[in-house]
Each structure stands twice: as C-alpha cells, then as structure tokens.
Design goal:
Elements (H helix, E strand, L loop, with lengths): L3 H92 L10 E3 L16 E2 L11 E5 L1 H6 L20 E5 L6 E5 L1 E5 L3 H4 L10 E5 H5 L6 H15 L7 E8 L9 E8 L5 E7 L26 H6 L7 H7 L3 E3 L2 E3 L4 E4 L4 E3 L1 E2 L6 E4 H6 L3 E2 L7 E2 L1
Parallel strand pairs: 14-17
Antiparallel strand pairs: 1-10, 2-3, 3-8, 4-5, 6-7, 8-9, 9-10, 11-12, 12-15, 13-14, 13-16, 15-18
Length: 389
C-alpha cells in the first residue's frame, strides 16, 4: 500500500526524469542545428575561398596581360622617343650639309631595337607606306641562301620611290673624308633592304626604296652610308657560311614633319645567335649642297671637271657625243646591267678602289690595272650592287 509520502516521492522522481529528457532532447536538437550551420558556414567559406582563388587567378592573368601590354607599349614609346632624338640630330646634320660625326654619312647607335618580328619566319619580308604615302619601315628575316643566290648579278631594276624628284642633276660632291670629288647623279633610288641581302624580293615594292643622295647610299668612300650597314650583314654571312641562323633586318626612314624625302634612316640588324646586334643611323645629306626635303630641289654647284675624275665628268653627259665621252665608254663591254672592263683594265672609284665590272661606269675612272696600282689604288675586297671586283 502506497503512502502519501511514497506517492509524492514517485511524482517528484518522474517529474525530474521528464525534465531531464526534455532538456537532453533540446540539447541534442540545438547541437544538430549548430552542427548543420557550421557545415553550411564552412561550405560557404569554402565556396568563398574557391571564388577568391578564381578571382586571384583571373586577376593574375589580367595582371600578366596588362604587364605584357604595358611592356609592349613602353617599348613602343621608348622606340618612338629614341627615333625623335635621332631625327633631331639628323635634321641638324642635314640642315648643315654635314657628313656626320665620322664624315662617312652614318653613325653607330648601340644595340638593335628590333620590333614586330614575332610573326615572321626565315625568308619573309614586309614593306609598307605611311599615312602620307611615303616609304615606311622595311623588315626582312634574311638567310644565308638568299645572300649567296644574289651574288654575281643584280636581281632587278631599282624602283622609283614615292615622291621621286622631277629633276636629278649631275653634280660634283667633294668629300672631306677622302679628299676626292664624285661626279654623277645627286640622287639614287636607295634600297632600304639591299639587293645583295634580299635578292629579287627587294624589288617587289616601291616602299623598299627612298630618295637617297649618292653619299647616303654608299658614303664618302663607297663603304659608308647605307652600304656600311649592308656590309655588316654580308660580313656575318662570310664569317658563318651555310649557317641556319638568320638576321632580322629593319630599316626605318625618318622624316621631318610632312616632308617627302627622309632626313635619314635607322637600320637595325640582329642575328639569331646574337653575334650581330647593332643599330646604324644613316644621314641623307650632301656636303656643300643644300637640299629641299619636300621637292628634292637643291642649290647644287656647277658641275666641274677635275683631272682625276675626267672620265666621270665626260661620261655622265651621255647625251653629248664628244670625243671624251667616246673615249671613256670605249673598252667596256655591256653585259646586261653591267659594264665589264677590258683585259688588263679596271674601273677606279673615288675611294681609290678598283673593280672589273660596274653598273654606272660614268662614276669611275677607266684605266689599266698597272696604272691604278702605281697610283696607289687597291682592288676592292668585296662587291656590291653597283660594282664587283
């Protein structure tokens, strides 16, 4: 028989037990909810980390692209800045009718600044005009095989460049470097990339030609001006016969404002093995002659005959049939583009070098080899597109 005291004790025990179960269930429920929320938070945090990681990756890619673009833009700005400084110097030389710092119509300007060759391959080339229709940068990836195939004869006829002058007078140019006087045409159709380097490809566009003065083309001694840069490339081929290496060759004419005739050109040359890496600046000027770089007109001095260049002065007047002209052209045999000297005879240049065949005999003195040697003249070590030993 249960007493009241026992009944109260039992009820109290059951109440405590129920409360405990309720509290335990509540704690279990709270723990489950907390665990789920933490998991969701972790998942959310994980998702956030992934998104952040992708963002960093994209930001990194964008940064690299921006960096590359910035580097390209910087290089372009630096190149333009360098060209502006070079042009300022060229304008000074040409305005003062100067042959430049070495009196041979060029100067060396450090390492090559080669640009825009990434999509080009061995043997490829590119010529273009600028917004004013003038010849602009000419580029080519030169090969040894092209150099060899172009030796022996000219591969084409020089094209008339944009804004070729209406008049190309016969002039006398006295060179301070050599003490000699050249008698012949003031202007040449000057290759940006020479026949001797690019062969027939050099004749595929008028944009590979500019109006260049005679000394701009070959300097005061036949080895200056544009010829100096060309000989650097030719010398590399001679030192590396049958090589698979290539030469990136780039010529950029520089104009003052809207003038039609360049004040000079920047020639950048770099071989794929890094042995050749130079920039040459060529001056389009003439000692003693003031040139209008818009029209090509000049204040050229009256043509005068010197004792040394008697052959030149008479022969260049091809329209005048005088005994002197007949004498100077006799003996040479015409063979295509070339005039070949007779047996024992040579053509002597104003730089005291003699050749056996030339394209413009009026620019040389025709004499016997023995007489040339006695006068101190020497055989040219190598030929070019105008003369061969």
């Amino acid at each position: 028989m249960i007493t009241k005291q026992h009944h109260r004790s039992l009820v109290k025990t059951l109440t405590v037990l129920g409360a405990f179960l309720l509290v335990g269930g509540g704690l279990t429920g709270c723990g489950s909810d907390a665990s789920t929320k933490t998991s969701e938070d972790n998942q959310s945090q994980s998702s956030s980390v992934v998104k952040h990681s992708h963002h960093k990756s994209n930001a990194s890619s964008s940064s690299q692209a921006a960096s590359s673009q910035s580097s390209s833009s910087t290089a372009k700005r630096q190149s333009q800045s360098s060209d502006a400084a070079i042009l300022k110097r060229l304008v000074s030389y040409t305005d003062n009718e100067s042959a430049g710092p070495n009196q041979n119509y060029y100067w060396s300007n450090g390492h090559a600044r080669i640009t825009g060759f990434s999509g080009m391959h061995a043997g490829s080339y590119h010529f273009a005009g600028d917004s004013l229709g003038r010849s602009a940068t000419a580029k080519a990836v030169l090969t040894y095989s092209e150099y060899k195939s172009s030796q022996g004869s000219r591969q084409g006829d020089p094209l008339e460049p944009p804004a070729w002058p209406a008049s190309n007078p016969i002039v006398a140019i006295s060179f301070s470097l050599t003490g000699r006087t050249y008698h012949g045409y003031l202007y040449n159709r000057s290759h940006s990339i020479a026949d001797s380097l690019l062969g027939w490809k050099s004749y595929t566009s008028a944009y590979n030609f500019t109006t260049g003065t005679r000394p701009q083309n070959v300097g005061a001694d036949q080895d200056g001006g544009m010829r100096y840069a060309e000989e650097m490339a030719e010398g590399y081929w001679e030192d590396h016969p049958n090589t698979s290496h290539t030469i990136d060759y780039e010529t950029t004419p520089l104009y003052e404002g809207s003038e039609d005739i360049p004040r000079g050109s920047v020639v950048d040359i770099k071989s794929s093995d890094g042995v050749l890496n130079s920039e040459i600046v060529v001056i389009n000027s003439v000692e003693g002659i003031k040139i209008n770089y818009n029209s090509g007109t000049s204040n050229a001095k009256t043509y005068e005959t010197s004792s040394r260049a008697a052959y030149s002065s008479s022969a260049t007047r091809s329209s005048t049939t005088t005994s002197n002209t007949q004498h100077s052209t006799a003996g040479g045999t015409k063979q295509g583009q070339w005039t070949v000297a007779g047996n024992g005879m040579v053509y002597v240049s104003d730089s005291n070098k003699y050749y056996t065949k030339v394209t413009n005999p009026q620019n040389y003195q025709y004499m016997s080899r023995s007489k040339a040697i006695a006068a101190g003249d020497t055989q040219a070590s190598r030929g070019n597109e105008y003369a061969r030993p």
